[in-house]
Every structure is written in structure tokens, then in C-alpha cells.
């Protein structure tokens, strides 16, 4: 349980708030590269700031204030140029650093005045990695953009799924330290949603939480596993400060503002050994809906079930009303780490998991269950027989577009069951 003040401290992310300042020390994925094959600008709202993300004519990405500093026109209606984005209202042009590089009428009427040197637009660095576009909104110098090992895994079909959720980001991130929900939400509730009453999934007997350089792992022993099982020896990874890595996919919980978040999923499906080598030119990006055509929450897929839980906790969960138990040890560890990190940022120090050394930022390994299955691969026969990753039938989120399904099937050489966990 938190006090009202602590809850506000942990959840508010606007500029100048302690948590907002902490989160601004990290790179955040805010869109997919392939979204810009068909358009040049995209509106984004990140941590209470309205911004426009763009790809200029040289193929470089930038992120700037949504409003032109001249008379506030919408920069997402602007025109991309060789370097930067030009406002469509009176033609002022801004580069990636936010510098005004052209003011057509001012430059003509008073070239000596160099008024453009006095005007800047707010701008943030953007980098592309793993098919995602990452933004850094904190003070310079920016740390390294983490190069997690899975981003360079070979022979995988990758896809990016983005969903907007009407709840605070911390509800999503607390799910990254919550092993018991697998048993109830994903195993047992799925059975009930299928109309079955049992038998329920294996019970958890023991859980543990361990710190590593870039976050924490949660480790567990169920009735059907022992202490030699990778669920206990390796565990799944909470990735600091706002993501999770499960062994073959990342889930980032990016705050839009205090009351909304973006779930940004990066999924890696290893193609069968028989289909190697597989090279994917462009990583598809799709928006995952959270409600069906009747306006009901979608509950058929694992991640949609999680979304229903987080949204159900309230727009901003009232943590003054919680009653935490032994299953919530990881939640406490996470909150205490956030408090330590907020203090570090106040003192001008780097918080947890900031990477400053470029030499150390190459294919950084993360705790990875079934690593061999993902890196070495399996044959199509092994996968069909229900291999470790359930590649044949496990689609995490509802709403995969038909063209992505077809591309995934073609890459895999195996028919995908796209119905989700509940109906699978
Ligand atoms: S409002 Fe943008 S150039 Fe005038
Ligand atoms: Fe979950």
C-alpha cells in the first residue's frame, strides 16, 4: 500500500515531476520505423508532451514540439525537407536539433536581422533500432540506446504491436514483477472463458525475485516444475524501468500521460531450422485493438488479458486501498527501486540500468528462458510437436492484420493458429 502522496509521486510523468524526470533519463520506443514507409509525420504524446515524429527527405528521423514557435500551427501538418520539418503555415523550417534554419519572409525582408537565430523549437533525439524508433527526452548527454541481444538474433520473424490503453503506465509495469497472475489470469481464467471449469493450471509453490544489472527477474516453482527448470533458474525479466522481456518478446509500457499508456510489443518468432536463412527486410507494425466491435474488452489473447487487468485497476490505481501479500514481494522491490532512483536523479546521479560506455553496449544478454530454442532454432517437426515456444499456435495479441499473418506463415512454413490462447 502507498500513501496518496507516494502514489502520485510514482505515477505522474509530466515535465518536472520526480518520476517524469527519472523516466526522461531513458530511451523509450515511441513508434515503428515501417510506419514511415507510407507517411512522413506522426503525432505522438509522450509523458504529457505533445510532439510530432517525422522522417525527413534524407531518411533521418526527428521529434519536435507539436506547435510551431511562430504562431503555434500544428507541425504534423508540415512539410519534410532534406533536413528537418517545415511549418506549412508560413514556411519556417526547423532541423533535428530544433534550430530554425529558414524563415522565408523574414530572411527576405531583413536578411541582416537573422531573426531565425533567436527562435528554437523544442526537439529531442530519435534513433532507430530493431525496427523501433526510440526517443530520449532527458538532459544531455543522452546515455547509450541499449542494444539488447535479442535485437540482433537471426532468422526470426519480428513484428511490433502498439496499443493505447486508458490507464497509468505503472499498472502495466507492475505486471512485470507479478508471477502469480500467470496461474490465475492466463491459465485458470482462460479455462473459464472457454467454458471449462477445470482442471485448473499448475499451482505456484514458491516464488523469488532477483536483481540483475538491467532490472529484476521473477522466478517460480510450480507443481509441475522443479528447481532445475528455467522458470526457477533463469526466470523472466523485468527490464528497467518500464519494460519486460519474457524470453522471446519485449513489452514496453510507455507513458502517454498520467492517464494513458502505450503498450509497445516487439515479438520475435524463430523460423524453423528448415527455413533458414530467413532475412526480414522490414518489420511490420500494427495497432492492437483492446475492444471488440460490441465495445467489450477483448480477452482472448494473453496480452489483452493483461490489459483488462491493468485498465480494471482504475485510470490511476488507488494504491492507498491495496492489501499486499507475499505474492507482491516484487511489487515492493520495484517501488523501492523507483524511490532510490528518484533520489539519485535529484542528486545528479545516473539511476539504475543507464549505459554510458559505448564499448559495453553490444548485444547485451538478458535472462532468456529457452535461449537455444530461439537462437539455435528447431525443426518444423519439433515446432509442430509443441516445441518449447509453442510457435505454432501462440499469438500474443488480438488483431494481427491478414497481411502480417500471411507474411508470418510464409516465413515459418507452418500454419499459425491466430485465435489466441483462449480458443487455441
Ligand atoms: S505558425 Fe509556423 S511558420 Fe507561422
Ligand atoms: Fe500477463
From TrEMBL:
Keywords for this protein: 2Fe-2S, Iron, Iron-sulfur, Metal-binding, Oxidoreductase
Keyword Metal-binding: yes
Gene3D superfamilies associated with the record: Naphthalene 1,2-dioxygenase Alpha Subunit, Chain A, domain 1, Rieske [2Fe-2S] iron-sulphur domain
InterPro entries: ARHD_Rieske_2Fe_2S (IPR015881), Cholesterol_7-desaturase (IPR050584), LigXa_C (IPR045623), Rieske_2Fe-2S (IPR017941), Rieske_2Fe-2S_sf (IPR036922)
A Pfam family the protein falls into: Rieske
Domain of life: Bacteria
Keyword Oxidoreductase: yes
Domain Rieske: 27-135
Name the UniProt record assigns to this protein: Rieske 2Fe-2S domain-containing protein
